[in-house]
Amino acid sequence: MNLKELFKTNGSRASLIIFLYILYAITGSLGEYLFKYGLNSITTGNLNRFIYWELVQFIMSILTALLLPIATIAFTRQVQDYLHKIRQDILHHYYNQDNDEKVSSMQNRLTANLKLLADNYATPWVAILSGVLEIIISIILLASMNWILILVTAIFAVITLSMPKIMEKRLHLQWIRLIRKMINC
């Protein structure tokens, strides 16, 4: 499976998929970004402006909730079309060879291999694409507020990701003490 070939299967759908995931990342991040305008409006006592920003944020949330399934369906169709193309190529290869392999074993091999391609190769690309887009747009939004927020967010991310490793030894010792207490009772 090749990512370039996956997108070549249907170029217009591939462009639509990328556009939908970009739009999904923008609407998701922008909805959260607009919260600050609603908060500013309510702190200044402007209820009408607050309601306006909350309504805009609600519309952005609805768009975000709708865009992800649409993009996922389009990506799934793209993957299925590509898998059909691969299946045809494999079948042509099987039938052009002179081997005595049973049809059931060919079918089992085809099904297993194509499922493996879809689950282990194509599906992670969706998560990678949407995750990278969300990170990039979040960095842009944080930079538009204040560049120090990017540093603070990066520091908190490192702390959050390293916390399980730091706490692992301590928690392990506490479990050992608890088990010894239970045995001694």
Q: What are its keywords?
A:
single chain, 185 residues, mainly alpha, 6 helices, 91% helix, 0% strand
Oligomeric composition of the shown chains: single chain
Helix content: over 70%
Strand content: under 5%
Number of helices: 6
The shape, in one word, is flat
How far apart the termini lie comes to 59 Å
In this structure, how is the largest beta sheet organized? none
Describe this structure in words.
The structure is a single chain. The protein has 185 residues and is mainly alpha-helical. 91% of the residues lie in helices and 0% in strands. It contains six helices and no strands. It has helices at 3-8, 11-33, 35-43, 47-96, 103-145, 148-184. Helix 2 (11-33) runs antiparallel to helix 4 (47-96) and helix 4 runs antiparallel to helix 5. The longest helix has 50 residues, at 47-96. The radius of gyration is 25 Å and the shape is flat.
Give the topology.
Blueprint (H helix, E strand, L loop, with lengths): L2 H6 L2 H23 L1 H9 L3 H50 L6 H43 L2 H37 L1
Helix pairs in contact: 2-4, 2-5, 3-4, 4-5
How would you summarize what this structure contains?
With 185 residues, the protein is mainly α. The protein contains 6 helices and no strands. The mean pLDDT is 83.
